Amino acid sequence: MKTDEQPKTTEPSSENRGIGVPVPNRTLPLLRTEKLMLNMGPQHPSTHGVLKIILDLEGERIIKATPVLGYLHRGVEKLAEDGTYHQFIPHTDRLDYVCAMYNNFAYVRAVEKLLDMKVPERAEYLRTIVAEVQRIIGHLFWLGTQALDIGAMTVFFYTFREREVLLDFFDDLCGARLTTSWYRIGGVENDIRPKLIENLRRFLENFSEKLDEYNALLETNRIWLARTKNVAVISAEDAVSFGLSGPSLRGSGVDYDLRKYEPYGAYDKVEWEVPVGKNGDTYDRYWIRILEMKESAKIVKQCLDQLPEGPYMVEDPRVTLPPKDKVFTNLEHMIRQFKLFTEGFRTPVGEIYSGTEAHKGELGFYIVSDGTGKPYRLKIRAPSFIHMGAFDAMARGYMIADIVTIFGTYDIVMGECDR
Amino acid sequence: MHPTAEKIQQKFPEAFVSWKEWRGDLAVTIKKDAVVPVGRYLHDDPEMDFDYIVHVSSVDYPDDEERFEVVYEFYSIPRRQRIRVKARVTEEDSTIDSVTGIWKGAEFMEREVFDMMGIRFNNHPDHRRILMPDEYDEGWPLRKDFPLAGKGWRDTFEFITEGTHRKET
Q1: What pLDDT, on a 0 to 100 scale, did the predictor assign at position B71?
Q2: Which value does ipTM take for this structure?
Q3: In 3-state terms, what secondary structure has residue A244?
Q4: Mean pLDDT of A56-85
Q5: What pLDDT does A14 receive?
Q6: Do A389 and B54 count as a contact with CB atoms less than 8 A apart?
Q7: CA distance A39 to A66
Q8: Are β-strands A375-381 and B52-60 bridged in parallel, bridged antiparallel, or unpaired?
Q9: Contact A389 B51 (CB under 8 A)
Q10: Whole-prediction pTM value?
Q11: Do residue A388 and residue B103 have CB atoms under 8 angstroms apart?
């Protein structure tokens, strides 16, 4: 059959092409083409929680991706207004439940900034050690699950083997593995025992070999390379404009790490570097996370060497609990204990923002205080939520199978995203 | 006076309301109509260069004449400096211009402010609720007059007691 008709082309408009791989201009004369809408999630194993994405597809290409959030919304910011400052610490565990320690750290730092409080040096070191161990756990978790989502199951078993050792370290340190609540306003809950320092040292000795093991599985793996290289590319300019942070921003080549440029804890007393990527794709972010784990191991080692003696909790009657044995025998101590638990401590009137570099990105707390024992307003700047804002721009133009990689590239946790 | 605040005052004498520096945080309050021009100036001017948006938030002061305060936090990656810009809106006219055209990340943050506090953003590309369901009609959860336990919607959910499901089948 001969026709004079021009074959129909499926050339997408310039706005549909997004910033990803350009959609090829194919000629499809006999196929009926139509846009397809697909719901992905909320219950999908690769969404790491309950995230729904509405995909507009043209064949297998994504032309628009709309995230639907809120399936895990618990109103944490509203709850914060009803409790004392101490009572909010366990709530922070449940934000990013994979890395509770860092959430605690970010929150207590914000309250300390509000109180203008200085923490003892030993506490600063202990906080830095535990935070970096938590960063290693977070990146190991990311690496395992990301590889699992892409199809490399073995890596998952390897990374979770090491993660387990570190979680046992947390277990010995504070009695909990995931929801730790170990940080306190003004210090930490308890001191580290010499046995644990020894265990941690022994773990760090072999850790770089373990990293080489993961890399041996992935670095030259064709499938891993094909599914991460040039996937979810974002330019440095766009990444900054969207407010990305952490490895997602550094993968695009922007040197932005709060640990380095607004130092807190003991980060300015140890030697380490900020790894920065170049291409802004998933592979660069993977590589940055591997390098960050190495840097974290370096930081922990140096902190353990330098660990000073001294108190691990500040002696400040506003926030410090009285010694337990005195509470039952001494009236003044009992009253102080009672008042701290019922009323909480009073903070000066004012507002502060304190940002902390968690392993996913900048975790910030904006606290408005009206001088009572409860926060007047507490806003959580959650990196996962802000990263979802860039999802549409990063997913356009890719294949439907790449969606899983793009979820994973941010290291998203819905508990933090929905709050 | 803080040099950054002084420059903003010189550039926008009409819109500038006040400034404050506390605990090392610089906060500048401006009039709500000037949010976009001031934002444009902070973003584009090479002396300011606030290229990174940290968060958009809002605070409710029910007793004040201008009830809500919209809070923007910006960061300059090249100059490593922070600034907080605040603007008051009234309850009757709780609208403010969107800065999504300047910082792309503002889109989701402003949607969250709308969802939680009911402040509307003019010229927003996708003005919908984000965390609460689309059909949610109990109001704005983070306002101070919203009770902590909600307004009864969640009590209407069917409660399934243990064992009932097994008996029926």
Answers
A1: 92
A2: 0.88
A3: coil
A4: 87
A5: 45
A6: no
A7: 10
A8: unpaired
A9: no
A10: 0.86
A11: no
